[in-house]
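Quick one, probably user error.
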């Protein structure tokens, strides 16, 4: 008596549904209809998603800057300043899935800006930029207000030292 083995079970991506958010390079198929007739896979690195989110966050009025957190970002920031590498994704963490992403932002808000209004504008702008540039749906934009920026911080002048005679 022979025993039959079932063949391999195969499913399409549509049957499996969306993949949970994960780190690493993203394999994302464009959601737009393919009019050229040429297929393929588009891969978007997490660092690209992070940079887009960082630039979009800085476009919002009331956001003074993004703030890095933790020891790793402190050393990364130091290394970036030494090597001349830009800090566009400072204060940004992303989790990227195949069709959606989650963004965490650490921001410094200008004093007198309405934090709820800034947060709403951030969510709208970051989500819109990511959708337009990558096709990823933004599931969440989590915002941590790490500090306030006071305009007088830049205007403080060192006190004049009397001349020594």
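Nope, works fine. Designed sequence:
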């Amino acid at each position: 008596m022979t025993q039959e083995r079932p063949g391999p079970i195969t499913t399409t991506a549509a049957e499996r549904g969306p993949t949970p958010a994960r780190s690493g390079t993203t394999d994302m198929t464009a959601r737009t209809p393919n009019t050229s007739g040429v297929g393929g896979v588009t891969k978007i690195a997490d660092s690209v998603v992070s940079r887009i989110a960082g630039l979009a966050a800085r476009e919002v009025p009331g956001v003074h800057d993004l703030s890095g957190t933790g020891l790793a970002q402190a050393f990364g920031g130091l290394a970036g300043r030494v090597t001349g590498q830009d800090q566009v994704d400072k204060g940004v963490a992303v989790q990227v899935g195949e069709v959606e992403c989650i963004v965490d932002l650490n921001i410094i808000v200008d004093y007198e800006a309405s934090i709820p209004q800034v947060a709403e504008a951030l969510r709208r702008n970051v989500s819109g930029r990511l959708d337009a540039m990558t096709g990823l749906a933004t599931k969440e934009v989590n915002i941590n207000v790490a500090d306030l920026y006071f305009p007088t911080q830049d205007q403080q002048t060192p006190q004049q030292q009397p001349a020594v005679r």
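Residues 5-24, 26-33 have pLDDT under 50 and may be disordered.
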